[in-house]
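User: I'm preparing a small set of examples for a lab meeting where we compare how different chains pack in three dimensions. I only have the primary sequence for this one, and I'd like the structure in token form so I can line it up with the others. Please keep the answer compact; I'll paste it straight into my notes.
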Amino acid sequence: MDSAGRTVGDRLVRAFYVLFAACFTLVVMSCVILNGGRGGVELLLTALGVPVCAAVVWLVKGLLDRFSGQIEGRYRAILWAFSIAMFLAELFFALALRHGTWYDAAAIFGGAVEWVGTGAFSGYYEYYGYFPNNLGGMTFLYAVFRLASWVGFTDYYAAASLAACLMLTGAMALASLICRELAGASAGVLALAVFALSPQFWFLGGAVYTDVLSMLFPALFFYCYLRFRDGRGNRPVLLLTMGLAMGIGSQIKFTVLIAAIAALLDALLRKKPADALKVALCAFGITAVIGLSLNGTLYSTQLSREEARENNTPLLHWVMMGLKGDGYYNPEDYDFTRSLPAEGRNQVLLDEIIHRVRQRGPGGMLELAARKSAADFGNGTYGADDFLKIPPHGDTVLHRFLLQDGAYYGFYRGYTSALHVALMAWMLWAAWRFAAGRSRREGWRRLPLYLAVFGLWLFLMWWETNCRYFSNFAPVIIACGVLAVSDLPGAAPHKNAPRT
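Assistant: Understood. Below is the structure token output for the 500-residue chain.
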């Protein structure tokens, strides 16, 4: 990049970090102040716990720095030991927290079970007529259950939990590898320590839904993209893996595509049009092939395109619903959308969206952004209660912590939220440094991660409010927080040499 291009690029990157820092200052403050009416011990744990958790992460970083030499040589052994232990713990807890399914979770789980057993999922055709966005999640579970059935294993809850635990463990390992790529082995181990201190990850294996099942793919994409960008590894293999990560992940949860958009912008800002073209062709091309193939197969063998045109819930519905109240699910908006004829429905929804925005005005929209930020990003449990509470479930000590009506839920949500917000605060601190022009090189290197987090926030400000919807990018947020802590004095020297 020439000096003029570098100057323009630097200005654009700094402008982005200024915007990111301003918006996420709102997010972090909202998460602490606007905490959904929480009170008592939970409010105390969240408010006071944020600085305490931030300090704990810093202290762990300082401890790891003392052993940075040994960590560098033993990183792979540490990563494998952590991954095996975490996977076994997740699977144990998932089986201990066995539960039933209902509505969306029942559709992807029950539909997959019926598909394996009968060759069709006809009992769920009506549901998928309204919500085709979950066809990818069901197909993913169908593949898992089909493999299980081939070896005579029919405990499909256990099979789904096994798949979820693999996704979770893989996402954590890849977040650690991302930190190692950008800041050395000590940062990679610090990421593992943060995951170990985050109990929500221990208990997500039983929360089998698209949020957890798609968690692996943004982290996998970014790890491959960083190595591709920096000229490490086999570039065709990395590009193919990136494309498959987007193609499979986006079918499960379409927000995964935000990672590819972030990488594309990063390549363009670096004035690497050839890299941008390769990323676009692989990521979006493979995504299109997989998506068209899946839809073509399902709509030619099981589902009706005519019914789909009549019943599919338009994307604008969730935007409209996100503008009512605090943006949570409400049945009135579903009734409204379904009362509209297919012809002209999107225009009516768009008109209602414009009406709701005008009715709120600039001040009201800013207030809504603050409330949605707190609700979407402020819950460190990642909304696992939505699934773990579904009967049948026991009354174990775990349930008393993990379910909203449990005696100790306030302690659990208070602590997990405090640690989660503390990591976002560290991420924000680094963004302000980059915005001020400090650590220019690190700001450029971490740009795709920050672009993705910002893109996810921007999307969720216009979407239905739900504390689960950010969770497939939680490992990316944690990586940003860990990398920020690694910038502090005393950190181990960054290892940027190629690794095998």
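A couple of notes for your slides: The longest helix spans residues 345-377. The CA atoms of residues 179 and 483 lie 6 Å apart.

User: Perfect, thanks.
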